[in-house]
Amino acid sequence: MSPATESSDARTADAAFDADAALLEDVERLGDRIKAARQAIGRVIFGQADVVDGTLVTLLAGGHCLLIGVPGLAKTRLVQTLGVVLGLDAKRVQFTPDLMPADILGSEVLEQNEAGRRGFRFIPGPVFCQLLMADEINRASPRTQSALLQAMQEHKVSVAGHYHDLPAPFHVLATQNPIEQEGTYPLPEAQLDRFLMQVDIGYPDRAAERAMLEATTTDRVVEPEPTLSQDDLMAAQRLVRRVPMGESVIEAILTLVRKGRPETTDLPEIRAHVAWGPGPRASQSLALACRARAVLDGRLAPSVDDVIALARPVLIHRMAPTFTARADGVTLGEIIDRLTESVG
């Protein structure tokens, strides 16, 4: 090898080392800021650390989140707090059976100016924000639910044949009540697939419920404080996509997702208990979520443990049990746990 070639290889190695060092520095800096955001949220939301982390992973990955929980578990408060802490323009829409698509997207109205000329003017709906809370999304009709499809996937909406771009970043946090299903409309599979993660919200433990009780029944109101801006969040989302992912993690994601499909699995129980499995968007969502979880923890690269930890929230709303599974009492959570055993 000539001296010139050796010198070129050395420069390439130095450049790669400098790039890795810069990336690590960016990840550590972001980790410190995310830690501050966690603390700011924790002063308002009690006993829901896993829920907060799951929501932050979704936002860092640039996706949308489906929050499942009974009433009174601070789902609305969580979205409001996230809007303040992350410096986002947050809006809330209460989904009801009589809600129309125009109530979300906006509409065109006919106006007449001083010269007597008439024209249409577009009045934006509440979807034109950066953090949209779709409260009890399954209470709206399928027609209204589908109004969010284009917004969630393309970050723009079409009204009267004209496209209107949504603000950046744009995220939907939708809530569902798991116990009160009368008068609801199940979300179609195509819309469920647009949610990067489903986060189940349980009851807080005794200590957290006590802290919440003491903090919310006095005349002192604790308000969230901003720690990030919308530019910070968008920079963090770009950083997440720069995080390297090892071959073992990629293989674990592909194995997990493909074994969850009855058509491509080698597990007999999956063919018996799964009607339809996760599509390619599940692989993409799982990869982004693993990267975001690593950044959230201040790590430079995700591991197979991240894949296993995120398998249930990323896959559970992208799969459907068969009649046999329902008859046998087999849940989707148990099915996904069986899948993770094959990659653990």
UniProtKB/TrEMBL annotation:
GO terms for molecular function: ATP binding; ATP hydrolysis activity. Keywords: ATP-binding, Nucleotide-binding. Belongs to the MoxR family. Residues 64-197 form the ATPase AAA-3 domain. Residues 273-338 form the ChlI/MoxR AAA lid domain. The lineage of its organism: Bacteria, Pseudomonadati, Pseudomonadota, Alphaproteobacteria, Rhodospirillales. This is MoxR-like ATPase. PANTHER family: MAGNESIUM-CHELATASE SUBUNIT CHLD, MOXR FAMILY PROTEIN.
